[in-house]
């Protein structure tokens, strides 16, 4: 059983391209060849060999093997105890990240997973989704996400590729908080309470790492966001001001001019004139 799917126009971050199941005859093989998407095989029974990157892996029931896009691979069923497997082809901007979280990469393409019942369940649900007339793409993407979440949850614990210092972690938390909440009336006290550090200590730590204060970083982040909004003619200066956390338009204009050297109105006029010149 195999089903090929059209490229998803709705789910560019992650989408299924095909899925299937096969009981191979002895010595059945594929390759050497490349694929243009990710392909995960799960061995339901039997044995076989998978070759990639100069390495040969002897595989058996209960193991996954990953084929990455544009990588030459070869795989062959055992001559005595040939494998049967199912497979899931997929792609999208999130595919590599999710696979890494499951401990699967081009250099680590094998994963042990004792969960035949779960895999059969996802295969059945994917097959049954053919009855959906309007939401099949969404349902298939959801099932793919659920299946990958099982691999991530029960796969090996993968250490971070680069260990961050505690100071770097706190700095990233500050930046993330500002990115998510810059439109609100946030203060340094709010940020410190959220992270769980003393205000003075956090400010000192941030200054050492970033070479600017948290307050200056927040102000510049807001003003840069405001600049991005200037190209939207439907937004007034007041709309933009409120959208980046300043209910007082006069205060916003004063801060904007201090940071950018122009008033918001002048900046918008100059930016529009420049874009028109670039167009022509």
TrEMBL record:
Annotated ranges, domain HTH araC/xylS-type: 172-270
Origin: domain of life: Bacteria
Keywords linked to the UniProt accession: DNA-binding, Transcription, Transcription regulation
PROSITE patterns found in the cross-reference section: HTH_ARAC_FAMILY_1 (PS00041), HTH_ARAC_FAMILY_2 (PS01124)
SMART domains: HTH_ARAC (SM00342)
CDD domains: cupin_MmsR-like_N
SUPFAM superfamilies per record: Homeodomain-like, Regulatory protein AraC
Annotated protein name in UniProt: AraC-like DNA-binding protein
Organism: Paenibacillus peoriae
Native organism taxonomy: Bacteria, Bacillati, Bacillota, Bacilli, Bacillales
């Amino acid at each position: 059983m195999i089903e090929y799917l059209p490229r998803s126009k709705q789910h560019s971050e992650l989408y299924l391209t095909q899925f299937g199941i096969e009981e191979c005859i002895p010595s059945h093989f594929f390759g050497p060849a490349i694929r243009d998407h990710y392909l995960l095989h799960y061995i339901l029974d039997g044995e076989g060999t998978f070759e990639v990157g100069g390495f040969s892996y002897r595989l058996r029931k209960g193991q996954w093997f990953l084929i990455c896009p544009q990588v030459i691979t070869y795989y062959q069923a055992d001559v005595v105890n040939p494998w049967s497997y199912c497979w899931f082809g997929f792609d999208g901007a999130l595919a590599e990240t999710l696979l890494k979280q499951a401990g699967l990469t081009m250099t680590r393409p094998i994963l042990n997973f004792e969960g035949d019942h779960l895999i059969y369940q996802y295969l059945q649900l994917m097959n049954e989704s053919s009855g959906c007339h309007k939401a099949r793409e969404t349902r298939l993407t959801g099932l793919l996400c659920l299946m990958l979440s099982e691999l991530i949850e029960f796969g090996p614990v993968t250490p971070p590729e680069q260990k961050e210092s505690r100071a770097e972690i706190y700095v990233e938390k500050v930046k993330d908080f500002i990115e998510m909440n810059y439109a609100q009336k946030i203060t340094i006290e709010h940020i410190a309470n959220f992270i769980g550090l003393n205000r003075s200590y956090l400010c000192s730590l941030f200054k050492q790492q970033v070479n600017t204060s948290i307050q200056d970083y927040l102000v510049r982040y807001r003003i840069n966001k405001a600049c991005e909004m200037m190209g939207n003619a439907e937004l007034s200066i007041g709309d933009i001001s409120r959208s980046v956390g300043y209910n007082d338009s006069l205060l916003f204009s004063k801060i904007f001019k201090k940071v950018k050297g122009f008033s918001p109105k002048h900046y918008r006029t100059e930016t529009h004139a420049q874009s028109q010149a670039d167009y022509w």
